[in-house]
Amino acid sequence: MRLVIDVGNTRLKWAFGQGEAQAVEHRGRDLRALLRQAWTDQPRPEAIHVASVAGETVDEAIRLVAQDCWPGVSLTFLATRAECCGVQVAYARPERFGVDRLAALVAAHARSAGVPVVVVDAGTAVTVDALDAQGRHLGGVIMPGLRLLSESLLGGTAAVSAGMAFPALTAGEALQASTEAGVAAGARCMFVGGVLHAIEAACGQAGEGAHLYLTGGDAAILAPSLGGRHVLRPDLVLEGVVLMAEAG
User: Fold this and answer.
1) Which of 27, 99, 156, 200 has its CA 20 to 30 A from that of 49?
2) Among residues 100, 56, 107, 102, which one has the least CA distance to residue 81?
């Protein structure tokens, strides 16, 4: 039984073997305490495989808690390489391509062998990447996620208060009658509109019949605007981590 871990800038998600994925928000919190609470008394995994983009401080917390809970267990932080599991990364410097993006592409490519794919990962940042039918990465875009969009406005406008909710937007509800709701609505309009534009461009480049995969913490906010043309896979990165681990 493997323990596979997906570490983003805000959330950490994990799964033991074929078990259900669990997640915690680690941003601004004591990650070591959170993981000790979650992992203590869990069965010892045969190995641990991690896809992390959160930096060395978070990675070290994972190492320390894993060693405390399961002394001597093998722990591997996956790294991006130019080719992996049939996916060929377009970057001239593949190490600059986030390993979470690679894992998501690996999983999508495995699920849609011989078909172009577009993967949207809507987290702290949003990434949109495309593969052709042969698994060649055609490139991608990176844009601020919903939280970063709202924080950028709040940080630059002293008169706007924080702590507002993000109301659901439907037709006719884009215009708001308060500053707080207006910021929330504006951030969501930019978020949804920007991602939809990137999806159209990526699908056009990937080719006819491309399968669209949607994952990430804010995927549910995007899903209604896609009209059912997508496949929602909340654990797509973890699926890719499993495949990458199996491939060595």
Assistant:
1) 27
2) 102
Looking at 31, 52, 77, the residue that finishes a domain is 77
Write out residues in the chain with pLDDT < 50, as ranges: 158-159, 161-172
CB count within 10 Å of CB 191 equals: 26
Instruction: Please tell me the total count of domains within the chain.
Output: 2
Q: Which of 139, 141, 135 is nearest to 83 (CA)?
A: 135
Co-location of 236 and 125 in the same domain: yes
d(CA 128, CA 143): 9
pLDDT of residue 172: 45
Per-residue pLDDT tens over the stretch 130-163: 999 999 999 999 999 988 887 777 665 544 544 4
Is the torsion defined by CA of 49, 20, 118, 100 positive or negative?
A: negative
Query: 243: alpha, beta or left, given left = phi > 0 and alpha = psi -120 to 50?
Result: alpha
Domain assignment of residue 153, yes or no: no
Residues 102 and 69 in one domain: no
pLDDT tens across 227-237, in order? Answer: 878 999 999 99
Task: Give yes or no: 100 in active site.
Answer: yes
Reading the block at residue 58, the tokens are 């978070």
Domain boundary residue among 77, 105, 136? 77
